[in-house]
Design a protein that fits this description.
Length: 214
């Protein structure tokens, strides 16, 4: 993988932020796949290496993401930006291949079927999928809150309206939830059965949590 950070620094900030959204989910999905002993996208059990790289990816993003975004706003190449580019491109790719996917990407696939979401990029929709996953998994409030505040700080979505979904539309929410749990979807890599009703409830709760922070 060869990335010219001078080019990244001059690219639109949204591209970097979207990359952060996709890469941030890598660790949380890899952790879930490990907990449930599910298989990765390439068919094997997650490797210790993949899980470790996914963890490192997340640590770098949490530490350097806001500074990297500021660097891109200034069209400047800085060490923080270099580290985030490494996390977004190298670590996320390796962590995803050997770490696996879970609800975050399944919800992304559901959101992508809503017309209003079409102007939103992959990483933005994955970011809201990650929040939905953490709520669905019942992770500690402190962990969920940290990810909400981080996503808000770097400019990632924290509510459904920010990915073009009408949170008051039962039709849209049910469609996303149903699409998220079709057979073969990565939502079934959770360590517990995932139903349409559970995803729908998590979508609503995740949206409400985010709206309280706006
Ligand atoms: Zn992705």
């Amino acid at each position: 993988v060869l990335v010219d950070t001078e080019v990244v620094a001059r690219a639109p900030k949204r591209q970097l932020v979207g990359g952060i959204g996709d890469a941030l989910a890598t660790w949380f999905e890899a952790r879930t796949v490990r907990e449930s002993c599910s298989t990765t996208v390439v068919g094997g059990l997650p490797s210790r290496t993949g899980t470790a790289l996914a963890k490192l990816c997340c640590e770098i993003l949490l530490a350097d993401g806001p500074a990297a975004c500021a660097a891109v706003e200034a069209k400047a190449t800085t060490p923080a930006l270099e580290r985030v580019v490494e996390a977004n491109n190298l670590l996320s790719g390796l962590g995803f291949e050997s770490g696996g996917l879970a609800v975050a990407h399944a919800v992304h696939n559901g959101i992508s079927e809503i017309e209003g979401s079409h102007c939103h990029i992959h990483g933005e929709k994955v970011a809201f999928g990650l929040l939905t996953q953490l709520v669905l998994e019942g992770k500690p409030q402190s962990e969920i809150d940290e990810i909400y505040r981080y996503q808000q700080a770097v400019g990632l979505p924290i509510c459904l309206a920010q990915v073009g979904v009408d949170a008051n539309s039962d039709e849209q929410l049910n469609h996303i939830a149903e699409r998220s749990v079709i057979p073969g979807e990565s939502s079934h890599n959770e360590p517990f059965p995932v139903s349409t009703a559970a995803v729908s409830a998590a979508l609503r709760a995740a949206d409400q949590w985010g709206r309280r922070l706006l």
